[in-house]
């Protein structure tokens, strides 16, 4: 079905489906083997112990690569549209791409360094991934508004901005609640100290993560109008 999509729409579609599967599969495995409680664990908690850690690390690294490719195609698409419309500076477009790639790097760090094995590095990677991701989708929302009405509808722009605002609020609340947790563990139970802070922070984390997924879902229609061509030139001496 992905191969039947016009243009390069299969790229964000693959990113969305693969990332969703990464979160869900690792969560299901972690719950079934009893490593986490079913009620809203941290995303990283579902990829800390074997066997789910291997699945989580592999699939999140692939997601980071797909996200980087999607962001680059989005950059090229805006550059092409900008040739005739001049709705955004090229430097702003490049800055947005760099912010997005920082988030992808953070995802790679999260996937490679498990939460309990190297917690400081893992936390840095998570902060970079979520923080850069929120900035990226916010900048993309603003760029989308600037490209209206020729390249985007106001309906799509409002959806993107709503996702950005919700993700930004959830990201801030996630940090606030997480800062009040006094211990690092993955097997939480409701009777424990700081469980409420953990629960609220985890909800915010899942909200931000799926906010990114739904945001990239809105790219599919834009990418349907865009195709990449590889040009090969042969020069004779």
From TrEMBL:
Keyword presence, Membrane: yes
Membrane-spanning intervals of the chain: 7-33, 53-73, 94-112, 124-143, 155-177, 197-220
Subcellular compartments: Endomembrane system
One CC-aspect GO term: endomembrane system
Main location: membrane
Transmembrane helix listed as a keyword: yes
Top-level taxon of the source organism: Eukaryota
InterPro entries hit by this protein: CWH43_N (IPR019402), DRAM/TMEM150_Autophagy_Mod (IPR050911)
Domain CWH43-like N-terminal residues, every copy: 8-225
Membrane topology classification: Multi-pass membrane protein
A GO BP annotation: regulation of autophagy
Record keywords, A-Z: Membrane, Transmembrane, Transmembrane helix
Family named by the database record: Belongs to the DRAM/TMEM150 family.
Protein name according to UniProt: DRAM1 protein
Gene responsible for this protein: Dram1
